[in-house]
Design brief:
elongated, mainly alpha, Helix Hairpins
Length: 103
């Protein structure tokens, strides 16, 4: 049995809100980055689902998904570099200790 559009959108919505919840409630930068990746993956799932069910013969949703994956990989690399530098200077990856980076 193949899942329908409603099932895929329900999973995508669940992933999105889990990511938003994790982003706003956690103070660890690594878990905030993982929550942001959950949000991006839920968007990817939406692109694939709508591409499959609304325009089955076209590839725009897949191209958007590949583009978002590339952007997410670059974003993760930059974020991990910032987290490593923050840990080297403050010996913590807590968001509260990053106040000196504001200015």
């Amino acid at each position: 049995m193949q899942p329908g559009l409603f099932h895929i959108l329900f999973i995508s919505t669940t992933l999105f809100f889990l990511g938003v919840y994790g982003f706003f409630t956690r103070r660890n930068l690594i878990t905030m980055l993982m929550s942001l990746e959950l949000i991006l993956n839920s968007v990817n799932l939406n692109f694939i689902a709508f591409n499959k069910y609304l325009w089955p013969g076209q590839m725009e949703g897949l191209f958007f998904t590949v583009f978002i994956i590339a952007i997410a990989a670059a974003e993760a690399a930059v974020a991990i570099a910032i987290i490593i530098n923050l840990y080297r200077s403050h010996r913590s990856i807590d968001v509260e200790s990053a106040e000196e980076m504001k200015y």
